[in-house]
């Protein structure tokens, strides 16, 4: 026996301390999406990592992916020792994820060793050890020069071997042995009631502990992953949602997604010329994400379908996920606004996929979406409505899923179109499943209720990288498609529909009335002027007659005086005077 | 490590043996030696003349560990008569060995 039987804990710790020493802990990338990001590079190299979780939480898959990806992506041969499932069973289970275990085995990159222990066959008598397991593991490791080992799940031994005292000592020895051989190991363990694992494996494997959890909140199952402990390394401490999709395990470090996709700069028409005008005159950016949100019956689907129709006219392929209507129903309904979608379906340009999101979990949906996108290779993918997906998961997981989805589609330069139902009365800008930050172009359609009539108002809430209009337009669904018209903006706010028409008539009447009023006032003034002028003329005439009268009287008086003077002078001559008489003075004073 | 033993002397040849037993060990540890001793004693006492014992040392033939799904050592496997039975440990508890070999009615036989 070249392996020490038992090793006291301090000695073990000293050994591991010696191993790391001043050298920084090296990491062993798992190749699992997201996990390497939150662990800053992978699992601790040359050490065992404990993965614990309840049944169905994905422990086996994590362990298998660690081995398979290690073999495929990093050329590290690996041993998968299973205590629960046979080699053939395992191969079948992961075949759906695209892993060909037989091929890896043939290429000497993988050994799958199934340890079957039948409790009923076994009788215990006296002392024993687990050297048989060591021999098997050593044999498998040596056969391919393995660098990675997975033990899934070693706790099965506790069920088979009643003597836990021996078992614990032997497990301690096993992990030490693995460390000594420099194996990066993943050990799985069933979640226990009070401890992380049912049999306290965390006592032996203490370098890195990852906890998987599948919990059901409001009837919706969500998978979470948390790194409980990672000795000698910084790591993400949050619970990270993860999915198991057709590429395997995918942890979603929400904040860690690298935003490095290329952004196409060309535009495409929305199919509504007026809307293109509102979006800087050119339409939307290809490869961007769009959201049409609005209340019930605001025409979101019609608007989305108009986008799709325009794309199909250009010969582009569209994939439409309808979460609330059947393809037939959509085609029929869209015919009523003049969109003939049937021809695009027949031409193979449009695919409508209908399914209620609550039937499957989120990850099943994501898997389906990815598969269809890969098969159909569309330029536009529409989700109608994305708010229906809300019912399929918690806020955080839906948000994470959508983020993953949008990033996935953006990286393929696929234009994403979402519609979202906003609850009436709720704050319209917060209820969009928290995806608003993922959206490049956001069009809001609102019900406007006015004067006993409901009309639709459309505006562009946000359009990244575009000089977009801030105007509200009235949104009409006509039998020849969608029409946007200017709304009436007046002192009482915006008016649409017949209220707008009424208002316009009222305005016209008011204008006419004002015109008539002005005319009337002008006439009154004219009359006044005329009256004034007449009055002036009258006064003038009166004055004239008075003046004449006065002048006449003066003349008369004058002549009378002349006559008197003449008479007096004649009388003075008669009296013999030649002097000026009082008659001269009198005339002067009167003048 | 000394050269491991392969076949122990038996009282009957392999062809005629009603009882075919295989004992897995790893090297000559006290456990393995005790197990071999204990097994011989029990067989002589209860199965004289109708048994065959094969001792397999996994340090020499590690690939054999897979055939009988050996984890614990030492393990005694009853190949014949069927059904297959496994007894792990140094076989020091004779009563339990007999129960395990189904030579005596036990709680599980």
Q: How would you describe what is shown here?
A:
The complex is a heterodimer of chains A (591) and B (109). Chain A has 16 helices and 25 strands. A 9-stranded mixed beta sheet of chain A has the order 5-4-7-8-3-9-10-11-12, with helices on both faces. The termini of chain A are far apart. Chain B has a 4-stranded mixed beta sheet with strand order 2-1-3-4, with helices on one face. Chain B is globular, with a radius of gyration of 13 Å. Chain B has helices at residues 30-46, 64-67, 94-100, and strands at 19-25, 51-57, 75-80, 85-88. In chain B, helix 1 links the parallel strand 1 (19-25) and strand 2 (51-57). Chain B is α+β, with helices and mostly antiparallel strands. Classes of the chains: A alpha/beta (591), B alpha+beta (109). Chain A binds chain B through residues 1, 113, 115-118, 120-133, 135-136, 138-139, 157, 160-161, and chain B through 24, 26-27, 29, 31, 34, 58-59, 62-63, 65-66, 69-75, 83-93, 96-97, 99-100, 108.
Brief sketch in words of this structure:
The complex is a heterodimer of chains A (591) and B (109). Chain A contains 16 helices and 25 strands.
Features of this protein?
A: 591 residues; alpha/beta; nine-stranded mixed sheet; rod-shaped; B: alpha+beta; 3 helices
Adjacency order of strands in the biggest sheet of chain A: 5-4-7-8-3-9-10-11-12
Q: Report, as a whole number of angstroms, the end-to-end distance of chain A.
A: 166 Å
Order of helices and strands of chain B: EHEHEEH
**Helical residues, percent of chain B:** 25-40%
Radius of gyration of chain A: 49 Å
Tell me the structural class of chain B: alpha+beta
Instruction: Describe the main β-sheet of chain B briefly.
Output: 4 strands, mixed
Low-confidence stretches of chain B: 1-14
The helix content of chain A, as a percent range, equals 40-55%
Q: What best-fitting shape of chain B do the alpha-carbon axes yield? A: globular
Mean pLDDT of chain A: 81
Please, what is the average pLDDT of chain B? 78
The total count of strands of chain B amounts to 4
Calculate Rg of chain B over CA atoms: 13 Å
Largest interface: A-B, 27 and 35 residues
Strand order of the largest sheet of chain B: 2-1-3-4
Supply the number of helical segments of chain B.
3
């Amino acid at each position: 026996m070249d392996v020490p039987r038992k090793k006291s804990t301090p000695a073990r710790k000293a050994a591991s301390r010696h191993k790391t020493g001043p050298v920084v802990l090296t990491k062993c990338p798992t190749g699992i999406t997201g996990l390497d990001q939150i662990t800053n590079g992978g699992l601790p190299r040359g050490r065992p990592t404990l993965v614990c979780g309840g049944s169905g939480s994905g422990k086996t898959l994590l362990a298998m992916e660690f081995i398979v990806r290690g073999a495929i992506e990093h050329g590290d041969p690996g041993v998968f020792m299973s205590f629960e499932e046979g080699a053939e069973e395992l191969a079948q289970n992961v075949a759906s994820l695209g892993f060909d275990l037989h091929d890896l085995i043939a290429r000497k990159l993988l050994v799958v060793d199934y340890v079957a222990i039948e409790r009923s066959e076994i009788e215990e008598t006296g002392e024993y050890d687990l050297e048989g397991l060591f021999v098997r593991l050593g044999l498998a490791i040596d056969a391919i020069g393995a660098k990675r080992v997975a033990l899934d799940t070693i706790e099965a031994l506790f069920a088979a071997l009643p003597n836990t005292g021996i078992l614990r000592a032997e497990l301690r020895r096993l992990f030490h042995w693995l460390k000594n051989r420099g194996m990066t190991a993943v050990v799985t363990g069933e979640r226990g009631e009070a401890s992380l694992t049912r049999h306290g494996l965390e006592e032996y494997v203490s370098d890195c502990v990852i906890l998987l959890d599948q919990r059901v909140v409001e009837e919706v199952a969500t998978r979470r992953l948390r790194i409980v402990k990672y000795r000698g390394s910084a790591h993400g401490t949050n619970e990270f949602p993860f999915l198991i999709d057709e590429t395997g395990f995918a942890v979603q470090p929400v904040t860690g997604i690298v935003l490095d996709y290329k952004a196409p700069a060309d535009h495409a028409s929305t199919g509504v010329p007026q809307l293109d005008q509102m979006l800087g005159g050119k339409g939307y950016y290809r490869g961007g994400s769009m959201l049409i949100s609005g209340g019930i019956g605001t025409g979101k689907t019609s608007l989305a379908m108009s986008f799709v129709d325009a794309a199909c006219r250009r010969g582009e392929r569209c994939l439409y996920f309808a979460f609330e209507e059947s393809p037939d129903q959509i085609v029929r309904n869209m015919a009523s606004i003049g969109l003939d979608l049937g021809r695009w379906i027949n031409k193979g340009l449009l695919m409508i996929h209908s399914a209620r999101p609550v039937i499957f979990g989120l990850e099943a949906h994501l898997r389906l979406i990815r598969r269809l996108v890969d098969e159909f290779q569309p330029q536009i993918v529409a989700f109608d409505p994305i708010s229906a997906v809300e019912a399929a998961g918690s806020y955080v997981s839906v948000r994470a899923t959508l983020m993953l989805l949008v990033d996935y589609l953006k990286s393929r330069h696929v234009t994403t179109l979402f519609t979202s139902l906003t609850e009436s009365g709720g704050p319209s800008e917060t209820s969009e499943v928290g995806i608003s930050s993922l959206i490049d172009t956001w069009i809001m359609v609102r019900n406007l209720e006015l004067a006993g009539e409901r009309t639709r108002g459309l505006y562009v809430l946000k359009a990244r990288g575009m000089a977009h209009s801030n105007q509200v337009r009235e949104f009409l669904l006509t039998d020849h498609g969608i029409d946007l018209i200017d709304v009436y903006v007046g002192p009482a706010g915006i008016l649409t529909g017949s209220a707008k028409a009424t208002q316009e008539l009222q305005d016209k009447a008011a204008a006419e009335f004002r015109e008539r009023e002005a005319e009337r006032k002008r006439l009154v003034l004219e009359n006044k002027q005329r009256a004034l002028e007449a009055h002036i003329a009258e006064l003038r005439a009166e004055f004239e007659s008075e003046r004449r009268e006065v002048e006449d009287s003066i003349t008369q008086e004058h002549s009378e005086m002349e006559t008197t003077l003449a008479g007096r002078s004649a009388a003075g001559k008669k009296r013999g005077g030649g002097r000026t008489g009082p008659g001269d003075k009198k005339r002067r004073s009167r003048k | 490590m000394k050269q491991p033993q392969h076949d122990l002397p038996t009282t009957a040849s392999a062809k005629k043996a009603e009882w075919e037993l295989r004992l897995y060990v790893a090297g000559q540890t006290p456990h393995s030696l005790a197990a071999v001793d204990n097994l011989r004693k029990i067989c002589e006492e209860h199965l004289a003349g109708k048994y065959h014992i094969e001792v397999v040392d996994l340090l020499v033939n590690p690939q054999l560990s897979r055939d009988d799904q050996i984890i614990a050592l030492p393990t005694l496997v009853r190949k014949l008569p069927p059904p297959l039975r496994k007894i792990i440990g140094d076989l020091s508890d004779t009563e339990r060995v007999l129960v395990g070999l189904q030579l005596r009615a036990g709680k599980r036989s």
